[in-house]
Amino acid sequence: MEKEIWKNVSKGVALINVYDHNNAEVQRMVRSQKTIEVTEKERLHLNTERAMRPGTDVFSSGAMVPVQLLETTSDKAEIEANPNQLTDKDITELLSLQWKKFDTAIADVTNIQALERLYDMADADDNTTVRQLDAIKARILEVYPAHIFED
Q1: Could you give the CA distance from residue 86 to residue 117 in angstroms, rounded to a whole number?
Q2: Does position 151 have pLDDT exceeding 70, yes or no?
Q3: Do 11 and 69 lie in a common domain?
Q4: Residue range 25-74, pLDDT digits in tens
Q5: Domain range for residue 31?
């Protein structure tokens, strides 16, 4: 059976429910910046559908981003359109946008982890403007008012 490949872009460990070789449900630990292969059924039925609220599972929230989806992935368009699933390439492209388009794009990001990754990458990029960093900070505080920045 073909599998999708997903990468944990969060700073922590992600626990992913999958089936083992005996078709028993088990949890796999995926460390930060590591990948896991999952079937669409495992991703949707064992993980996404079990989240407490829609959009809070690791696959929808942006903690895991797709590295390789299958042509047959039923929700491929939805995944690709999810503003919280920012790959490093997506973030680089965001940072190159004209400021009005940049502001519009980050306004759609609702996951704190995705915004923190965006901020960290922007802060490390010599081409990032102060205005962009300020806009990302403002969006982070809008989404999560208790956030504390370590400057």
Answers
A1: 9
A2: no
A3: yes
A4: 999 999 999 999 999 999 999 999 998 888 789 999 989 999 999 999 99
A5: 4-81
Instruction: Say which residues have a Cβ less than 8 Å from residue 99's Cβ, sequence separation at least 6.
Output: 129, 131, 132, 135
Residues 16 and 53 placed together within one structural domain of the fold = yes
Give the residue carrying structure tokens 């407490």.
Answer: 52
Cα pseudo-dihedral 121, 127, 128, 129, rounded to 10: 170
Cα separation, 82 vs 30, whole angstroms: 21
Residue 120 lies in a domain: yes
How far from the centroid of its chain's Cα atoms is residue 148's Cα?
21
Residue 65 C-beta-side C-alpha neighbours within 13 Å:
22
Q: How many domains does one find in the chain? A: 2
- Global pTM reads 0.85
- Are 15 and 68 in a shared domain? yes
Q: What is the largest CA-CA distance in the chain?
A: 54
| Rg, Å, the chain Cα set | 16
CA distance 33 to 63: 10
pLDDT band at 15 (very low <50, low <70, confident <90, very high): very high
